[in-house]
Amino acid sequence: MRVIVLIALAFTSLPLCHPTLAAEPDDNFKGILPKSDDGRALNLDFETGDLRDWTATGDAFTGQPVKGDLVAARRTDMKSNHQGNYWIGGYEVVNDKGTGTLTSATLKVTQPWASFLFAAGSKDTTRAEIVLADDKSVFFKTAGNEVENLGRVVVDLKKIQGKSIFIRLVDENAGGWGHLNFDDFHFHAAEPKFPNQAVAKVKGPPLPVDDVKFAGLSPEESVKAMTLPPGFTATVFAAEPDVVQPVAMCIDARGRLWIAEALNYPKKAAEGQGKDRIIILEDTNGDGKFDKKTVFIEGLNLVSGLEVGFGGVWVGQAPQMLFIPDKNGDDKPDGPPEVLLDGWAYQDTHETLNSFTWGPDGWLYGCHGVFTHSKVGKPGAPDSERTPINAGVWRYHPTKKIFEAFAHGTSNPWGIDFNDRGQAFITACVIPHLYHMIQGGRYQRQAGPHFNPYTYQDIKTIADHVHWAGTSGPHAGNNRSDAAGGGHAHCGALIYNGGAWPEIYNNTIFMDNIHGNRINNDILKESGSGYIGTHGPDFVKMNDKWSRLIAFRTGPDGSVFAIDWYDKQACHLPKEEVWDRSNGRVYKFSYNGERPNTSLDNSSNFMTLKDPKVLWQHLIHLQSSENDFISRRARLMIQERKLDKMAPDMRRLMQSAGPEESVPQHLRNLWTLHAMGGTDETALLPELKHADPYVRGWAIQLACEDRNPSPALLAEFARLAKEDPSPIVRLYLASAADRLPVEKRWDIVRGLIAHAEDVDDHNLPLMYWYALEPLVGADKAKGLALAAGGKIPLLREFATRRIASK
Fold first, then answer.
1. What distances in angstroms separate CA 387 from CA 320, 382, 390, one per listed residue?
2. pLDDT tens, position by position, 165-175
3. Potential cystine with 184: which of 83, 203, 388, 417 (Cβ 3.0-4.6 Å)?
4. Considering only CA atoms, which of 197, 184, 149 is closest in space to residue 45?
C-alpha cells in the first residue's frame, strides 16, 4: 500500500498517519464522487444534508452532518476547512462525550486514487478506515493531530482497484479530543496534486506510543513510582482529601503553603455560587508534611492566580483581580475582597490571568492566554483607560496601583520566573515552549494579530529544541514524544536558586510537561543580548498518566514544592462532569534528605519588630542568603514595611561593598534600594557606570519605571546607546526608549541603530524597531532618514513599509 498525505511540512509516519491542513486543489483536480451499483452518486460529501448512504451506531454522530464553519465560531485559531455546505463535525453536536461508528454504503474502487478531508485526535481511538468488503480487513486507517482543520488525505488504491470497500469512521474515545471530522471522499483517475504543499510519502513505523507504567495511583504510590536523579527524594507534603483541584500556590514568609483550589473550573458559576477556596497548609513539626490546615476563604469563583503580601492575599478570579486584606495576619479576611482591576475575560477559562509572582522590582507579575481577550482597568474605567491583553505577561504595582502589559505574545503561558540577574522567562504551549521576556517585547503568537499593526516581525523562542517528536505538528506528538521530552504542553516555571541542590541546577528552568507526565529541565546559556535554552535531561518522570503538575515554588529550606492537579484529563474541556473533583497533590522534592525549615522568622520573631533600623538590619542580612526564596521575601517585606527612611543607610552599604561582591548580590541590593524608594537620579547615575552590564541595564529599567527619567539620565542613556560595548545594555536601552515620549527617544535610538554588530542578534533589531516605529509614524521624513542612516538593514525595510502604510 502506498499512502500520500499532503501537509505543510514533510514528515515520516505510518499506516496510521496524521494529516494536517491542506490547501484545496486547483482546476486540475479531478475528483469523482463514487457511485452505487445502480449508478447513483453516493452521499460521501454529505451535500444531501443528512446521513443517507451511511449507517451510524452509538451516539458519536448524533445530529450529523453539520452545516457551515462552526469551528471558527468557537476557536479563533482554527477553521473547519470543509467543502460545500455540510460535513461531519464530531464535536459540534455531542462534543467529546459520544462514541460510535459511521459506516458508508459499499462501493467499488473504480479509480487508482482516493482522497478525503479528515481531522481528529492523535490516538487511533478516533480514526478513519478504508475496509475491504469481502473479508472486513482494514486496508488503510488514519488518526489526526489534534486540530479541527480538515486536512486532505490521499490514498493509493491501485492494489485493490476493482474490489468493493466501505469507509468507516470510528470514535472510541469519550475523553479529550474524543471526536473526529470528515468530509468529501472522492476517487481520482490520477494522483491528485495540491498547490503550495509539500508531498511526503508515508513510510516506516509510526512514532511509538509512550510507555507510562501507571495511572490513578494513591499519593504514596505516586512518589514511589517517580524516577528521580541520584540523591533526590520526593515526599507527599499533602494530598486529597486535604487538597483538591490545586491550580495556584505560593509560600509566605513563615514557610506556609497557600493553595487555590479551583472547584468551579472549567465554568464560571452563577453569582453567589462560587465553590473555589484558598487554603493554608503548614508543617508545624518540621517532618516535611503538613499537619495544620486553615481555610482562608471560600466562595471564590473561577480562581486562577494567588500571591500573598502587603497585608493580604492577591487573587485572580476573572473578570476581577482581588485583594483580600488580612493586615493582622490571623488567617481570616479583615473584610470583603477589594476589586483592584476588572475586565479580565474568560472566553477560554484555562487562559485567564495566572502565575502570580513577585518580581525583583517589587511589581506583581502574571501571565495571560491568547484566546481570552481582556481589557483591564480599574472598576468603572472606560475603554480608553483600559489595557488590552490577550497573550503575554502583565504586571501590577502594589502601592502605586498601576497596571501594565509587560510584554505581548506567545500562546497560553502558565508560568513565569526570574533568574539571579532578574531576567524573566515564561513557558508556553503549542508553539515553542521557552521565551526570555523583555519589557516591551512582542513575541511569536499562537494565533491572532499583534495589537500594533506595524510589528511586522516578532521575537521567537530562545529554545534550540522542542519537547515533542515527529514533524506533523506538536499535537501529533502527544503521548508519542518520550525521547524528546514528553509533548508540547507546559505548565509552571521555576528557575532554581535555592542553595540546596547541586550547582548544575542553578539558574536552570524547570517546567511541567503535561502530556509527558514529567518535569523538563532546560539550561539557560547567555548569548548576545539574551539567552539560548538548551535541552537538559528530564528532571523527574512521574510514570503516572494522571499526573498534571501545575506550579512549582522553592521553599525556605531550598527544596521545591509542586502542586499536581492529578486527573486523567490532560486537555482543557469545557464540560464540568469530566473533571475529577476528588484529587490533588502537593509534592516536595529534596536533595540528600530533609533540611531544616529556615523561614524568614528563623530564631527571632523579627516580623513584630517595631524599630525600623533593627528590622532593616535583619532583612538586609537576609539579602545574602544562598536561598533566593529568603532574599526575595525579605526584600518584599522591606517594601511592605515602607522602610524608606533607611535608604541612605542602604546607599552607604552599597558604596562600601568590596570587589568580592558578586553581581547577583549587587543586584539584590539595588532592587532592595528600589523597594525602599531610594533609586533616584543620584543613586542611579553611578550604577550606569558599574562594570557589569546587568547592573547598568537594571539601572536603566528602574529609572524608566515611571516613564519620566531626568534630563541627566536621558543624556547618559544617549551616551550609553552610542558607546556601551554590551548588547545587554543596548537591549535595556531599547526597552526603555519604547517607554519614553517620542520627543525624548530620538538620540537614544540613533545611537542604538548605529551598531552593525547587532544585525544578527536574537532580540535587538526587533526591539530597535519597536522603539523606532513611533518616530517614523510621527515624522516620516525624519524617521526614514534615521533608519537609513543606521547600520541595521531590517530597520530601513520596516521604515519604508511603515511610511507606505495608511
1. 14, 10, 10
2. 999 999 998 87
3. 83
4. 184
Question: CA-to-CA distance for 91 and 93, rounded, in angstroms?
Answer: 6
Q: How many CB atoms lie within 10 A of CB 105?
A: 17
Rounded distance between C-alpha atoms, residue 541 and residue 526, angstroms = 28
Q: How far apart are CA 56 and CA 102, in angstroms?
A: 4
| Alpha-carbon distance values, 296 to 271, 300, 709, 712 (Å) | 20, 11, 42, 49
Is the four-CA dihedral 771, 774, 778, 780 of positive or negative sign? positive
pLDDT tens-place string over residues 377-427: 999 999 999 999 999 999 999 999 999 999 999 999 999 999 999 999 999
pLDDT grade for 598, boundaries at 50, 70 and 90: low
- Yes or no: say if 504 and 523 are a contact pair by the CB < 8 Å rule: no
Render pLDDT for 775-788 as a digit per residue (tens, 0 to 9).
Answer: 999 999 999 999 99
Instruction: Return the ∠ at Cα 252 (arms to 246 and 254), rounded to 5°.
Output: 125
- pLDDT tens per residue, range 52-80: 999 999 999 999 999 999 998 887 668 89
* C-beta of residue 522 within 8 angstroms of C-beta of residue 535: yes
What sign for the dihedral angle of Cα 101, 106, 107, 112? positive
Among 418, 423, 417, 451, smallest CA distance to 439 is for: 423
Q: Rounded CA gap, 488 and 479, in Å?
A: 10
pLDDT at 459 over 90: yes
Percent of the chain residues past pLDDT 70, beyond the cut: 92
Compute the distance between CA of residue 178 and CA of residue 724 in angstroms, rounded to an integer: 57
Calpha distance 251→468 (Å, rounded): 32
pLDDT at 31: 87
- The grid cell for 191 is 494522483
Residue 751 confidence class, pLDDT cut points 50, 70, 90: very high
And the C-alpha cell for 122?
A: 492523535
Interatomic CA distance for residues 580 and 246, integer angstroms: 12
Q: Indicate the pLDDT class of residue 254, thresholds 50, 70 and 90.
A: very high
d(CA 348, CA 74): 10
Q: What contacts 24+ positions apart, CB below 8 Å, involve 623-627?
A: 623/665, 623/668, 623/669, 623/672, 624/665, 624/668, 625/499, 626/499, 626/558, 627/497, 627/498, 627/499, 627/500, 627/554, 627/556, 627/557, 627/558, 627/598
**Strand 180-188 versus strand 113-120 pairing type:** antiparallel
Which grid coordinates are listed for 646? 533607611
Q: Are 212 and 517 contacting, i.e. CB atoms less than 8 angstroms apart?
A: yes
- Could you give the CA distance from residue 380 to residue 294 in angstroms, rounded to a whole number? 34
Torsion on CA atoms 456, 461, 466, 471, rounded to nearest 10: 10
Q: Is 788 helix (H, G, I), strand (E, B) or coil?
A: helix
What's the pLDDT score for residue 29? 54
| Rg of the chain on CA atoms, in Å | 29
- Mean pLDDT, the chain, rounded, equals 91
